[in-house]
């Protein structure tokens, strides 16, 4: 049998003969010592704000980079807090083009994604194959936000099952679902009901949820051939539906789908950690303020005799150091809703013209909208190319004007994934040194490419099939395009 050891005592206490009395004294002693949560250590370095509402934007990005770039301007124009998106732009297996100051969570197939700024600290639920969900606090109550997508070429039951699993996990909590399920039903504006729409409506009814789409709302999908649809659905729990304002925006999205704005009129608390400007001076003031209180801080730590007193003193010293930094440095402004620097007034003007063409095309769709539709599609294609060229030229100008090769442009491109190369003077023995003289390079090339082979390559000429289908001159084997051959 397990032997019970002697009762534990705090330092400075005498052992009691009565075990029960000793335990009671231990409990009273622990109550006298204040228990400080770990969160209070950084209370003075955290800024908490109350937002009267939360704006959620829903959009299908159509897998295009132009729609993703245009999304950045919509965030600033409408002051969006959370984005529910489907079919984002994916490059090399990762979702690209989203704002760098925003966090993103995607489903396993990367067809549903949720974006949120860094001042929102949600609880991320386990992503499903066709859906993803996060949990935030609205009016001091948890609320789950779900993004889902189902392709018209796939079975909708798999996506509906993922949504049903999320609803079962939250167990009666509020939720908002933004999904592109490609289903047709009378309840959200279609003139007929499809089997997919019937399955979606059955899920909404079985969960006792509320459909936020209205029957008189304009279509949320415009195909280039002139057909319209309402595949984008917004669903919420019944208690939360009365606090949501749902509408379709008229902005140009550079996608076939339109923006859907959901404004939740409930308080939401945001937490932001303060950052100090240490690059532009203030160090002398910091040393002066620190010397004035250093002795008192050291004395406070030396007087501790127990672990609990040391934790309390450490918290107080930490808070005093934060106050000293606030007196010495300025606080950085964290702009979460910052427009892209490459977006010019010319692009904004072209975008407004395109919106006018789209409205004209919608008015003439019933009568003779073929000409207006053709003009709209042509101008939309031109604007996409212009956005791409403007973004590329702005990035090229930004890199050209930077004097430091590892400056802001290097950090923006690689972030923390790549580090500058070590210079030749700082290299250790055994490492490669690429700053070699010309003779070393010649010997290195001759080692891997024999001189006879290089002479053959030097005089080799390509035979083109015809003058009209001539290949790019960059494929020629000559000294101009291969400078390494000049070393031989």
From TrEMBL:
Cross-referenced InterPro entries: Endo/exonu/phosph_ase_sf, Endo/exonuclease/phosphatase
Pfam families, A to Z: Exo_endo_phos_2
GO function terms (MF aspect): catalytic activity
Ranges for domain Endonuclease/exonuclease/phosphatase: 144-260
Region (Disordered) residue spans: 1-30
Domain of life: Eukaryota
Protein name in the entry: Endonuclease/exonuclease/phosphatase domain-containing protein
Species this chain originates from: Araneus ventricosus
